[in-house]
Structure formats: C-alpha cells, structure tokens
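Regression test case RT-17, inverse folding.

Input:
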C-alpha cells in the first residue's frame, strides 16, 4: 500500500513537470510521457482499491477470501497501459505529419531526471511485489519501468532532432511512436500472468513439488495422489490426496491429515488452507 501511494505522489509530480516542459520545449515525446505518467496515476489508484479489497478476510459470500481482486486489478492496469500506448501512437503519427519546431535542449535534462527517478521507483516497487508475491504490484512496478523507457527513447529522439537540425524535427515524434510499441509489449507481458491467476493456473510448479515433498515427510503418509495448488491474491490454497495404511482407524487417518496440513502451513505461511483427502493403500 505504501509503495503504491509513493508511486502515485511521484507520478503526479513527474507528469506535471513533463507536461509543462513538453509544452514549453515543443516536445511531443515529453507530452506523451506525461500522458503515460497520468495513466499510471489512474491505474495505481485502481490498484490501491484492488489491494484494499483483496486484503479483506473471508466472509459468508467469499469463503476463500477476496484475493481475486488483486489479479483483477492487475488486469485492469495492464489494459489501461494498452490504452495509453494506443493514444500515444495515434498522437505521435499526427505530430509526425504536422510540421513543428525542434524541441528545446533543456528538455533533455528533464528526461534524464525522469529516467533516474522512475527506474529507482521501479526497483523499489518490484522488490515489494516480489516479497508479497503480488502480480498487481509487479505490474505497477513495470508501469514505472515503461515510463523510464519512454523517457529514455524520448531522450534519444530529441537528441537526434537537436543534432540533425532542420528537417529532423519529427525525430522526437518517431521516438514517442517507438515508445508506444514498447509500452504495448510490456502491457502484454503484464496481462498474461494476471489472466493466468484469474483462471486458476498453477502459480509455480516448484511450489507444488515442494508441497508434495513436505507432505511425504509426515509419518503415516505412504504416498500422494492428487496435488493441486492455486493462488488467491496473496495466499495459496492446496488440495491434496494422501494415501495411508488401509487398516488404519478413521480417527488416525484424520490425525495424519491434520499433521499434513500443519506441516504445510508451517513450511509455507502463505498457504491459507489445505484440504486433505485420505485414501487407503491398495489391497
């Protein structure tokens, strides 16, 4: 939550600075960059709402919690990133076809500062997302990286326009168009894991293997049959079929099931619940 709020505050300040510098400095690449930053503000607010909702505890209508709000927010953020890229591409083509002045040199200083700030913000938010295992936060982090990329590409475009002189004014706009393509590609990379989580795809094959390993070490477990793991927001849910001695009393099989559940939750605190089905060994 804190990392998202920090991102919102910085994006508002950077968007205002880039828009003002773009208008005064005759740089559409900077204006496009400002649009991308404002889209970051809107999507970060969506993400903030999604994170707050995802953190709600389970209730009668949502026995598995509200975790799906987290990848849903990531999906909305990714689609918004697509939208921002399309707007930038359309406006870039318009600017390429419209004669205009060469951008001012001071815009390069603004862009250099933006790249440094946004890359630092990307590293900070992405680290928080990795720790929380949150696709939504990682998506938000990549918004900052995309902003740094567009600013870097704009820096190159404006430099070419300044060095080339008359006839190279549109280099700035071509840079904005190239940046829109980069943003679209990043949006696709961010959308895919969010959709996979919404459709209950296996979150991590290694986690499933580790779950099987921990369960097999519980005394009384002869073997394992089915093992399913799914991610719900910040938590994981496990469905597991354990095989025990067929002559074992029901109460003892029940105790083994609880031992398996306790062992898994101790090994992986992010596992919110484990459903254990007990099966007998073959005759």
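Golden output:
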């Amino acid at each position: 939550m804190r990392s998202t709020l920090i991102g919102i505050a910085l994006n508002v300040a950077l968007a205002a600075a880039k828009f003002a510098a773009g208008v005064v400095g005759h740089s559409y690449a900077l204006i496009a960059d400002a649009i991308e930053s404002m889209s970051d503000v809107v999507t970060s607010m969506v993400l903030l709402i999604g994170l707050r909702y995802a953190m709600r505890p389970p209730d009668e209508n949502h026995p598995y919690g509200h975790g799906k709000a987290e990848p849903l927010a990531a999906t909305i953020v990714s689609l918004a990133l697509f939208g921002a890229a399309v707007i930038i591409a359309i406006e870039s083509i318009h600017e390429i076809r419209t004669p205009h002045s060469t951008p001012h040199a001071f815009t390069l200083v603004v862009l250099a500062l933006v790249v440094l700030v946004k890359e630092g913000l990307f590293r900070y938010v992405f680290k928080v997302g990795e720790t929380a295992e949150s696709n939504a936060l990682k998506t938000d982090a990549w918004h900052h990286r995309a902003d740094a990329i567009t600013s870097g590409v704009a820096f190159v475009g404006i430099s070419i326009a300044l060095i080339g002189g008359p006839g190279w004014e549109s280099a700035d706009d071509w840079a904005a168009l190239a940046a829109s393509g980069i943003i679209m590609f990043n949006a696709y990379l961010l959308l895919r894991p969010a959709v996979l989580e919404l459709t209950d795809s296996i979150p991590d094959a290694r986690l499933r293997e580790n779950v099987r390993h921990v369960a097999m070490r519980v005394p009384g477990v002869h073997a394992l049959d089915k093992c399913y793991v799914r991610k719900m927001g910040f938590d994981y849910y496990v469905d597991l079929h354990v095989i025990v001695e067929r002559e074992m009393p029901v109460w003892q099989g029940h105790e083994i099931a609880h031992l398996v559940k306790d062992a898994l939750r101790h090994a992986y605190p992010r596992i919110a619940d484990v459903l254990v089905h007990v099966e007998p060994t073959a005759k």
